[in-house]
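Issue: ligand-bound run for F0G - logging full I/O for the record.

Environment: standard queue, default settings, no custom constraints.

Inputs:
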Amino acid sequence: MPRSIIEPFRIKSVEPIRMTTREEREGYLNEAAFNPFLLRAEDVLIDLLTDSGTGAMSADQWASIMRGDESYAGARSFYRFAETVREIFGFQHVLPTHQGRAAERILFTTLCKPGDVVPNNTHFDTTRAHVESVGARALDLPIPEGRLPAAQHPFKGNMDTDALRAIIAEVGAARVPLVMLTVTNNSGGGQPVSMANVRAVHAICREHGIPLYIDACRYAENCWFIREREPEFAGRSPREIARELFSYADGCTMSAKKDGLVNIGGFLAGNDAALASAESRLLILTEGFTTYGGLAGRDLEAMATGLGEALDEDYLNYRIASTAYLGRRLTEIGVPIVQPPGGHAVYIDAGAMLAHLAPREYPGQALVGELYLEGGIRAVEIGTVMFGSTDPLSGEERTAPLELVRLAIPRRVYTQSHIDYVGEVFEDLYRRRERIVGLKMLWQAPPLRHFTARFERLHQGSPLSEGALGRKP
Ligand code: F0G
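Outputs:
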């Protein structure tokens, strides 16, 4: 009989989490105007808001922290960090940054100009915002299956290579300063990209002389999926797979808050010396000198250690299995999720689960509120609240193509019983899903309105979960 895939660690230091009553949570949620970003973390029992910077560091990483060299220039910690990045990613020029978006800002401001087009399988909101802030167009080219939550595909994060060829033909290679691949594809459901797709995108870029960059945040998880799902790579080490994956790219941006297993840190890396020199001028201007880039020496040490740990086979096996475990539980209950579950998160199709709510009644945000009320669980809406906007001409609100709720799993933080508890909360919620009431947006501040928007229940006086007034499907 196959045995359980267990947490490949034991716990040396614990952080208490606080139980609250439903009445208390009603009060907290009202104060936060139904926005999970406005809740205090100490009022949350299980925090699945993000997997970014929320992981647990290992004993080795904490030991690295003490070895941090805090010299302003030329710190030993920088050389150890840069050498680790060269070994894993194969890029010669390594610029540390405080997190992923700083690397993106430097890359896009250096490479892009107004009128350019930057294709990606799916841009994350920060890469999109940086591309647009320099006047270029951020284009999403996922494969058609990537847009269908229920469709099964082993590599739903792949880029549509025909669409890539078509856009290059349409605008001309000179207006495409780079192509980007996000591994795994966060906005597309945490879905992996296959090595075959990376090779195909690389070939198209090479043919047209366009650099290929990888948004590498969750590259280790992506490499594990390649090993599990792409027969050519069965049994190969994640490190070897990573080496091949990045060999097809000219550079990468990295938020080490994900697969670097640290609470803060990132980098920009590449092989073009002239470009790296231009980038380092910007780095010095806003982040810090080239050997620390806005981080402390101890952060660089923790990152160097974490980058290695994230490629450990037992860790990756456990990591991917634990996300799949939650996905399986929810599917058994009947909760519609983006299939198959991603690497770092399970995405619930709130539009399908709460089919009685229209997109402008914010089914995702309503479900997020309900999850918190029912079980003290914090998640995030990825739908019309996050991506919708007001049409400047009609004043109408544009809605998002999908109304999702993301349950992102912090690395090495929660145990199987925490996840079982999440499943139990969903069982109760699912049973009375038809009575969940929608929300009305009271206030918003674009862009990125989801961080601060305020809501109230559509039917005042009726508890969110007991919508006698809620329309039935
Ligand atoms: N790229 C992807 C694919 C991301 O998921 C993120 C962050 C970034 C870039 C930016 O990195 O936060 O270090 O500046 N994602 C987090 C999330 C915030 O919750 O998914 P950052």
